[in-house]
Amino acid sequence: MARPMARRSVMAERVRVKAMMPPGHVRAPAYLRGKTGIIERALGTFGNPEQLAYGHAAEKKQLYRVRFTMAELWGDGAETPEDTVDAEIYDHWLEKV
Amino acid sequence: MPHDHHDHLSPSGHPYRPDNDGPLTYWQRMEIAVRELLIEKGVVTPAEISTQIDAMDARSPANGAAVVARAWTDPEFKSRLLADASAASREMGFDIGPLNLIAVENTDTVHNLIVCTLCSCYPRNLLGLPPDWYKTREYRSRAVREPRAVLREFGVTLPDNVQVRVHDSTADMRYIVLPARPDGTDQLDQGALAELVTRDSMIGMGLPRKPL
């Protein structure tokens, strides 16, 4: 496994949610996949829900709060472009921009 | 049955409504089967299940209102709440179990609201069960797409200079909004202030009541 925590220790780092569509119990909402935001805060490590949901031993994964603008999520259809959505995204779903 | 004939009105003149005790759904049967198996295999006792149901039923938005009212009157507590809302809630004596809680503060320029687009995550261990509308697909999909329109439907019209921050509870954290303290409440004590804090104001879909 990579050691991504060191890479993502800087606040306001820009990250993109990976645009993958794996089956199973995934906590990265589809509407955020492929979207870019900034890390609002690091939350520490939690058991990976993609394994926990099936009763498997779960690896500890770094969890981040990532902030997206409405403009990024909805483009010209944004209700108010500078409003934001914060969501918790696991490290293995994030790539550095 | 007293009214098996053509008359479908009750003695009060209203139509009879069907009872809601129809057959169990698949998932209701599944829940009963799993619960009975857990008891049979000695994993949990019926008394433990009853105790847990009672504990959840005893939780109510009044718990959150007490936390909010203290934050309004005690700046040091407010700092601790914004730094670690779980620890601050426990400090006030609330048994919130393993809840990982984050408090987000409404100000003159920021309005926060909470949603769980994936399911119905909610700070139940502090506030009790969520309102039915919180679990609807309509709220869950629209809150991240057009939060200001949804807020207007809840009677809250925000000025353009207020930024909306939506918090999607996608994983392990749960959220509570710390609403802005209403004007004209300088003379109120914590108990009176807590009376102003509504459930919806702690989800960000309402504002605290105005003082009488």
Briefly summarize what is shown.
Chain A is mainly beta and about 100 residues long. Helices cover about 15% and strands about 35% of the residues of chain A.
Description of the structure:
- The complex is a heterodimer of chains A (97) and B (212).
- The radius of gyration of chain A is 14 Å and the shape is globular.
- Chain A has three helices and five strands.
- The relative contact order of chain A is 0.28.
- By secondary structure, chain A is mainly beta.
- With 212 residues, chain B is α/β, with parallel strands linked by helices.
- Chain B folds into two domains: 26-57, no CATH class; 59-202, Nitrile Hydratase, Chain A (Alpha-Beta Complex), CATH 3.90.330.
- Helix content of chain B is 40%, strand content 10%.
- Chain B has ten helices and four strands.
- Chain B has helices at 26-40, 46-58, 61-73, 75-83, 85-91, 124-127, 137-142, 147-153, 190-194, 199-203, and strands at residues 101-105, 110-115, 163-168, 174-178.
- In chain B, strands 1-4 form a two-stranded parallel sheet. A two-stranded parallel ribbon of chain B has the order 2-3.
- Strand 4 (84-90) of chain A pairs parallel with strand 3 of chain B, so a sheet runs across the interface.
Key features of this structure:
heterodimer, A: 97 residues, mainly beta, five-stranded antiparallel beta sheet, 5 strands, B: 212 residues, alpha/beta, Nitrile Hydratase, Chain A, 2 domains, two-stranded parallel ribbon, 40% helix, globular
